[in-house]
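Quick one:
INPUT:
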C-alpha cells in the first residue's frame, strides 16, 4: 500500500501559530507516513515577499516562515520516526535568488531534513557539487513525461523518487512505472482538468465550467477547440469573408443533440432513410463506452444529463427495430439497452427509497448536497485500487477538500486492505466532475460504474 503524506505550512508564533508537537502528533495518529514542508524564511520574504516564492506557495499561512519552527517540525517528525522533505519547486529561479536557495539547502542539512524535492537543474548541480547525501525527489514542476527524461536524471543525479506531473494520464503512468521497476514514483489523483503542466497555460481555470485551458469539454468530450492559427485565417487574402467565418466557427452540437435531431428525422420518415440510420448507429457506437452513461440520481428526470440518457436509450430501441443490423452490432445494442434499462431502474428505486426514508424535503435536499460535495472522494476510491496494483508507486497525493483529513485516509485504508468498496461508501450521486478524463482507459468497459457497483470485487 502506498504512503500517505501531508503538507505542512504554518508558524509556531503569531496569528497562524500552531502547537507543533500536538499538531504533528494528531497527524501521525491519523495515519500520516511522511511530511513535506514549504519554507519561506524572513531573509527571503523581506527581500522578495510572498508573491515570489521559493516553493510554489504564495501565502504566508501556507508556509513555515522561521527557522526555529522548521527545526521543531523536523525534530517532532523524527521523534515519530517519520521522514520530512522540503520543497524547492518554484516556477522559476533567477541568479539573484539562487544564493538564497543555497542558504536554505544548508539549513536543511543542518537540521537533518530528510529529502529535498527539486525541479531546477542548477539546484541539482549545486547538490551534486556539495556531495549532498540526503534524498532528492524530482518535482512535478520538472514535467517528466517520458522515459528519456527519467533516464537522463537517473544517469546524472542521485534520484530517490520521481513525482509525475498532474496531467500525465493513467496509461502513461502505468508505462513509466513498468519501464523503471526499481525507481519509486509519486502520482497525483484528483486535479482540475488541466492538460498543461501544473496549470501553466494561457487561460483562467474554472473547473465547474469544465474549462481545459483552450479546450472546453462537456461530459468529458471535447466540444470547442481553440484555433492557434486564427490570425493567419483572418489575414489570409485567398479566403473570402464567408470562408473565414466558417473556419473560425466554434459552434458545437453535442452527440446527444445530434441523436435527437436524427431521431426526429427518422421518426418523421419512418426509417426509410438508410443514411440517417447509419449516422445514428455511428454516434451510438461511438458513445457506448462513455463513462458518464448512466442516470444520475442527484439530478431530476428532466435534467439535461438524464434527458440525454433517455434520448440515447430511445435511439437504441429504434435501431433495434431495424432488421438489417449485423448480429455483432445487434448484440452490442441489446447489451446497451439492458444496461441502460437497469441503470434507469436503479435510478427510480434509489429516488423512491430516499423519498420514503427521508420524507422531509429540506432534509432530503441537505443530504443530496452533502453527497454532491463528497462525490469525487467516493469515485476516486476506484483509482486508489488501480494505483495500489503498481508496486513502485509509493505515494498518491490527494487534497482534503470537503472531507475531514482523518476520515478520508481512514476510508482509503479500509478500501485498500479489503480491495473492494463497500456499498455504504457508494452513492448514486457519484459524478465524474474533477476525476481524470482518462478514466475510460482504467475502466475500459461500457457503463463501468454500474458493473463495478454490481460486481464489487477484485
Amino acid at each position: 500500500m502506498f504512503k500517505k503524506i501531508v503538507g505542512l505550512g504554518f508558524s509556531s508564533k503569531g496569528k497562524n501559530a500552531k502547537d507543533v508537537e500536538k499538531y504533528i502528533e494528531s497527524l501521525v495518529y491519523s495515519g500520516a507516513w511522511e511530511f513535506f514542508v514549504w519554507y519561506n524564511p524572513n531573509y527571503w520574504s523581506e527581500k522578495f515577499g510572498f508573491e515570489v516564492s521559493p516553493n510554489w506557495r504564495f501565502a504566508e499561512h501556507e508556509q513555515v516562515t522561521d527557522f526555529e519552527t522548521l527545526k521543531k517540525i523536523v525534530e517532532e517528525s523524527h521523534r515519530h520516526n517519520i521522514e520530512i522533505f522540503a520543497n524547492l519547486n518554484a516556477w522559476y529561479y533567477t541568479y539573484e535568488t539562487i544564493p538564497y536557495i543555497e542558504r536554505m539547502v544548508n539549513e536543511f542539512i543542518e537540521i537533518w531534513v530528510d529529502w529535498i524535492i527539486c525541479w531546477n537543474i542548477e539546484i541539482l548541480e549545486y547538490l551534486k557539487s556539495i556531495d549532498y547525501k540526503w534524498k532528492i525527489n524530482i518535482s512535478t514542476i520538472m514535467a517528466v513525461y517520458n522515459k528519456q527524461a527519467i533516464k537522463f536524471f537517473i544517469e546524472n543525479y542521485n534520484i530517490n523518487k520521481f513525482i509525475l506531473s498532474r496531467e500525465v494520464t493513467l496509461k502513461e503512468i502505468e508505462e513509466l512505472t513498468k519501464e523503471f521497476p526499481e525507481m519509486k514514483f509519486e502520482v497525483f489523483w484528483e486535479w482540475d482538468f488541466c492538460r498543461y503542466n501544473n496549470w501553466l497555460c494561457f487561460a483562467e481555470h474554472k473547473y465547474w465550467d469544465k474549462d481545459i485551458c483552450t479546450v472546453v469539454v462537456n461530459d468529458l468530450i471535447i466540444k470547442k477547440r481553440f484555433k492557434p492559427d486564427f490570425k493567419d485565417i483572418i489575414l489570409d487574402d485567398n479566403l473570402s469573408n464567408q470562408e473565414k467565418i466558417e473556419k473560425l466557427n466554434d459552434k458545437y452540437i453535442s452527440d446527444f443533440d445530434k441523436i435527437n435531431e436524427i431521431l426526429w428525422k427518422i421518426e418523421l420518415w419512418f426509417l426509410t432513410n438508410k443514411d440517417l440510420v447509419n449516422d445514428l448507429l455511428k454516434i451510438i457506437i461511438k458513445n457506448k463506452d462513455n463513462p458518464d452513461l448512466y442516470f444520475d440520481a442527484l439530478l431530476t428526470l428532466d435534467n439535461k444529463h438524464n434527458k440525454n440518457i433517455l434520448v440515447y436509450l430511445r435511439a437504441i430501441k429504434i435501431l433495434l427495430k431495424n432488421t438489417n443490423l449485423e448480429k455483432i452490432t445487434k448484440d452490442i445494442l441489446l447489451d446497451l439497452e439492458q444496461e441502460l434499462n437497469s441503470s434507469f431502474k436503479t435510478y427510480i428505486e434509489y429516488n423512491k427509497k430516499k423519498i420514503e426514508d427521508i420524507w422531509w424535503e429540506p432534509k432530503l435536499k441537505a443530504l443530496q448536497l452533502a453527497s454532491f460535495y463528497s462525490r469525487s472522494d467516493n469515485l476516486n476510491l476506484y483509482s486508489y485500487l488501480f494505483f495500489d496494483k503498481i508496486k513502485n508507486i509509493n505515494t498518491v497525493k490527494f487534497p482534503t477538500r470537503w472531507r475531514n483529513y482523518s476520515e478520508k485516509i481512514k476510508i482509503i485504508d479500509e478500501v485498500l486492505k479489503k480491495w473492494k468498496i463497500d456499498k455504504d461508501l457508494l452513492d448514486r450521486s457519484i459524478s465524474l466532475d474533477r476525476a481524470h478524463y482518462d478514466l475510460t482507459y482504467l475502466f475500459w468497459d461500457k457503463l463501468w460504474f454500474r458493473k463495478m457497483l454490481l460486481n464489487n470485487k477484485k
